[in-house]
Amino acid sequence: MDTTNITSSLGVVSPQRAGFQEPLPLKCGRAIANYELAYETYGTLNAAHSNAVLVCHALNASHHVAGVYADDPANVGWWDNMIGPGKPLDTNRFFVVGVNNLGGCHGSTGPLSINPETGRPWGADFPVVTVEDWVDAQARLADHLGVRQFAAVMGGSLGAMQCLQWTIAYPQRTRHALVIACAPNLSAQNIAFNEVARQAILTDPDFYGGNYYAHAVQPRRGLRVARMVGHITYLSDDEMANKFGRTLKAGHVNYSFDTEFEIESYLRYQADKFSGYFDANTYLRITKALDYFDPAFSHGGDLAKALAPATAEFLVVSFTTDWRFSPERSREIVHALLKNKRDVTYAEIDAPHGHDAFLLDDARYHRLVAAYFDRIAAGIIA
Amino acid sequence: MNGISIDRADFAAIAHWVKPATRVLDLGCGDGALFKYLKRECHISGYGVEIDDDNVLACVQNGINVVQRNLERGLREFDDQSFDYVILSQTLQAMRNSERIIHEMLRVGREGILTFPNFGYWRNRMQVLGGRMPLSDTLPYQWFDTPNIHLCTIDDFERFCGERKIRIIERKVLTGGSAVNVMPNLLGALAIYHFGTR
Questions:
Q1: Which residue of A has its CA nearest to B75?
Q2: Which position among A95, A164, A344, B59 has the lowest Cβ density within 10 Å, counted as fewest Cβ atoms?
């Protein structure tokens, strides 16, 4: 995402940390004895504690959802166009919580953290965490913040999967769910792309079985390729054609393997940037969390049965050119909710940007989300 | 919605037929005005279906659950007999596959409620006799910009139902908001039907 033209209306924010001593049982059968979560909050929690909105992040993002840091004013939150005073999720009305998920590399306990049992970074030993585990950890953060029930849980892509999980695991704590650019599970094609990304990392000679910290290296080559593959799937063919086409950097071909086409240059730039700040072990785990998420699986593939506990009201949004999580996949969610006679509104935004559209400032999309938050605000008991 | 916005007389007629606290699906619900009216008058629940972005936004603003969908593609997300009523207000005449949507209405709902402008209305007939395409309150479009492609008369629709095991439960015909009881196919501008399967 190009953030150079965005000025944050929220201004300076600062990250916080919460420590949890009670062991968190994980879906894989293991448990984390104690852990920390990095989070940020914007706006003010009202007296009734009824205006909190949790924003769940997708693959490569973090708890830094909106605003900028005092010591790093260029570091604008990843959903700053959506969240802030007067924005669709208005921080004048809502208390917004962003959290870095367990296993992340932005401050929450993850493979980079020191394992208290060994005194060394967790590395390869860090458990494979799931969407269900993330949501359980988020619920403990909510307890810590004194939020019994969220006015809304909101997310796009993998973040939206967490929203679905909230409505299933904590129905009484989720009044509304904003499920944006989501899928009820990954398709074989989605898993295939993730596997290419993982193979790139796992076969990088600098990976050292996941314990590369001890060798003071990062499997950057693998991470770069992983990011390139991912990035291709976030954009639509048309969007790439519009943005880059077949434009040559030098205006002519050189019969070489240097960056010749603009698209190559763009991918390499994104890959360099990403591999400079993201941890490979975290990337592996997040792609696994995506692959494993499938609430219908334990209900014989019946998504309506999986969503039966949910009592939240839903806003489901998809984007017409999103081929990674296509509108068809959102309609599966809507179908299940209709079957369960839940309150659901479904909008299909005609946007050219592919999966990435959920992060972009599209007037129709933002107007819709703003209107939905008006509805949520009207139902808040002060 | 592809016709004129229906007036309160239509709303009242439909509300009169809809039993309280039932589940309603309103196809081509526009800005949700009818649904909102039925919610207030009959305490219904359910959804609107709408294709237009601005109308979807208006539904959200009006507190209506709306599913954005092109009705031409059927009602695949909706299960058989999952609603008490399926309403199609002022939309039938603009649909490519008018017959299919009526069958879909009776698949998804136990009963259907339908409104359409009566092409047999005398003012329309006069204009056609005069050699021009009709222009009126219920047919406000010019021939070159009309969304209406499947116009019919009251007699046409009733023959259609008769040939298809569709049972007309009730009918109301309006002109300028007033009920028409005599020669409805000639004197009625707007037809409202409540129907089910035989």
A1: A335
A2: A95
**pLDDT tens digits, one per residue of A168-191:** 999 999 999 999 999 999 999 999
Classify residue A107 by its DSSP letter. Answer: S
- Residue A114, C-beta contacts closer than 8 angstroms, at least 6 positions apart: A120, A121, A122
Distances (CA, A) of A222 to A128, A209, A211, A226, A282: 19, 13, 15, 6, 13
- Candidate from A331, A334, A367 with C-beta closest to B57: A367
**Measured between CB atoms, does B126 come within 8 Å of chain A?**
no
| Window B:4-33, CB contacts with A under 8 Å | 23
Contact A346 B66 (CB under 8 A): yes
Q: Which ipTM value was assigned to this complex?
A: 0.92
Nearest-CA distance A148 → chain B (Å)? 25
Give the C-alpha separation, A176 to A182, whole Å.
Answer: 16
Beta carbons of B49 and B95 less than 8 angstroms apart = no
Would an 8 Å CB–CB cutoff place B77 in contact with chain A? yes
CB-CB contact of A237 with A187 (8 Å): no
CA distance A232 to chain B (A): 28
> Which of A331, A350, A371 has the CB atom closest to B60's CB atom?
A371
Q: pLDDT tens-digit profile of B61-99?
A: 999 999 999 999 989 999 999 999 999 998 999 999 999
Of residues B192, B101, B70, the one with CA closest to residue B138 = B192
Pairing of strands A52-56, A152-156: parallel
Q: Which residues contact B198 (CB under 8 A, 6 or more apart)?
A: B165, B166, B167
Contacting residues for B166 by C-beta, under 8 A, at least 6 apart: B102, B106, B160, B195, B196, B197, B198
Q: Residue A106's closest CA among A61, A40, A75?
A: A61
